[in-house]
Fold Phage terminase large subunit family protein.
Amino acid sequence: MHGRVPGAALFKAACPDCRGRFELAASALRLAIGGSRRTTFYSFTCPDCGTAVRKPAGERIVELLTGGGVRTLRLHSTV
């Protein structure tokens, strides 16, 4: 438990490039909520290879990430 905040959420993630699997703290993730499923996603930087990863986020993922304290950006439609 060294270096971890008690009760802090960790999220399992994987990198599509290097296929690394790891756990990330909420501070390592970003969530963007858009007006549609195509524009709602989460992103992170792979700690193994440094690749910027972006993955779609459905309703359940959005609930888990926001509940776990992940920083959220709400994208507003220009229409």
User: Anything to note?
Assistant: The longest strand covers residues 10-14. The chain is about 10% helix and 35% strand. The chain has a mean pLDDT of 89.
